[in-house]
């Protein structure tokens, strides 16, 4: 299979390094210095997009014009999702995910199951912690948001998620002294807290915690390197070849 890479940063290079192992070839590496064109993309069977939130939607639409299926791993562009989908043609194909790691996809699945069980035990407070490398700009990560959405779908007592620093700022504005009012204050217990840490050389760690007065239950995924993300993206490209429509990693893994 001939694959075009839209975005040639750390993830693009990790995917390229694995292509020959899966029997595929790279027919184009595109970035801001070497932008893609319809003509160049038309040489590919599938495009894999890991660029920037600002460039992502443009790259997807270019793939639609070139009639090339596109796998999208860029995050923080989902505010434009509906607009981009509206521009699909009858033979266009799009598969997007906040994380292509097979282990993370299994974690997403288990997270929902755990949330269903824990919704029966209100004495436990749910929270999410994510840790990434210092070059990751979006907070919280797309993976953390997907985990949060999976919990909210299955926890009637929770209404929304909030990034910890935003919640702390709101509490400071409300109280004047920064006192946390999340658990006993007027905000109540309906907010799912997400903390986001940025540390050197951390590919990605996500932990879902349920904490009570007597114990803590954790669901954790820790990436050791970027190979798992790259392998999942290639697997998604293999799935998408020759298809039309909108897909997710659930379709690839049959979860």
List keywords for this structure.
255 residues; Rossmann fold; Dihydrodipicolinate Reductase, domain 2; 9 helices; elongated
CATH superfamily of the largest domain: NAD(P)-binding Rossmann-like Domain
Largest sheet: 6 strands, parallel
Give the terminus-to-terminus CA distance: 25 Å
Which percent range fits the helix content? 25-40%
Structural class by helix and strand composition: alpha/beta
Outline: elongated
Work out the radius of gyration.
20 Å
Highest-level CATH class of the largest domain: Alpha Beta
CATH topology of the largest domain, by name, is: Rossmann fold
Describe it.
By secondary structure, this protein is an alpha/beta fold. It has two domains: 2-100 and 226-253, NAD(P)-binding Rossmann-like Domain (Rossmann fold), CATH 3.40.50.720; 102-222, Dihydrodipicolinate Reductase, domain 2 (2-Layer Sandwich). 36% of the residues lie in helices and 23% in strands. It contains nine helices and eleven strands. It has helices at 10-19, 38-41, 53-66, 81-85, 102-118, 142-152, 164-175, 227-240, 249-253; strands at residues 2-6, 25-30, 46-49, 70-72, 93-96, 125-132, 160-163, 191-198, 205-211, 216-222, 245-247. Strands 2-1-3-4-5-11 form a six-stranded parallel β-sheet, sandwiched between helices. A five-stranded mixed β-sheet has the order 7-8-6-9-10. The longest helix has 17 residues, at 102-118. The radius of gyration is 20 Å and the shape is elongated.
């Amino acid at each position: 299979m001939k694959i075009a890479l839209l975005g040639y940063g750390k993830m693009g290079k990790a995917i390229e390094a694995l292509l020959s192992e899966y029997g595929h070839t790279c027919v184009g590496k595109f970035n801001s210095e070497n932008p893609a064109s319809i003509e160049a993309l038309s040489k590919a069977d599938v495009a894999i997009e890991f660029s920037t939130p600002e460039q992502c939607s443009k790259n997807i639409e270019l793939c639609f014009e070139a009639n090339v299926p596109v796998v999208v791993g860029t995050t923080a562009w989902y505010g434009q999702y509906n607009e981009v989908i509206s521009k699909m043609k009858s033979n266009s194909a799009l598969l997007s995910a906040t994380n292509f790691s097979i282990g993370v996809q299994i974690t997403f699945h288990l997270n929902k199951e755990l949330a269903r069980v824990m919704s029966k035990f209100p004495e436990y407070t749910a929270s999410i912690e994510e840790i990434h490398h210092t070059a990751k700009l979006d907070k919280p990560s797309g993976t953390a948001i997907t985990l949060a959405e999976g919990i909210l779908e299955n926890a009637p007592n929770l209404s929304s998620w909030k990034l910890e620093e935003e919640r702390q700022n709101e509490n400071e504005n409300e109280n004047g002294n920064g006192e946390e009012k999340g658990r006993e204050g007027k905000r109540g217990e309906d907010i799912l807290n997400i903390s986001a840490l940025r540390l050197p050389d951390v590919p990605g760690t996500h932990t879902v915690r349920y904490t009570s007065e007597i114990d803590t239950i954790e669901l954790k995924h820790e990436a050791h390197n970027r190979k798992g993300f790259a392998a999942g993206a290639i697997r998604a490209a293999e799935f998408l070849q020759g298809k039309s429509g909108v897909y997710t990693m659930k379709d690839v893994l049959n979860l």
